[in-house]
Amino acid sequence: PTIHFVLKDGNTRSVDAPIGQSVMEAAILNNVRGIDAECGGCASCATCHVYVDPAYFERLPEPDDMERELLEGVAAERRPTSRLSCQIALVAELDGLVIHVPATQA
Ligand code: FES
């Protein structure tokens, strides 16, 4: 699936990533700036926080308890569309996914 990352500076980076990869991994492997992912994807750092475009947000499975808890402590403003990108696994229906990178992760 193709993911469009809208960066802090307003530019968009589009990357193609394989099914099964997380949005966080796709960002890191393609050097998308603004997603730190300090814990490497084990849902303990919250520095992979992103805003999911509303059109796609509804297609995602609900966050589990651990993700919900971590979302309480994100560095940037938490919004209704906030998610941890390491917990979003790519599936075919997410092709065209638009992800907004938050202002800060620290
Ligand atoms: Fe650490 Fe997602 S990479 S919580």
Automatic annotation (TrEMBL):
GO terms for biological process: P450-containing electron transport chain. Keywords: 2Fe-2S, Iron, Iron-sulfur, Metal-binding. The keyword Magnesium does not apply. One of its GO terms (cellular component) is cytosol. Its cofactor is [2Fe-2S] cluster. Residues 1-105 form the 2Fe-2S ferredoxin-type domain. One of its GO terms (molecular function) is electron transfer activity. Gene3D superfamilies: 3.10.20.30. Pfam families: Fer2. Belongs to the adrenodoxin/putidaredoxin family. This is Ferredoxin. It comes from Parazoarcus communis SWub3 = DSM 12120. The lineage of its organism: Bacteria, Pseudomonadati, Pseudomonadota, Betaproteobacteria, Rhodocyclales.
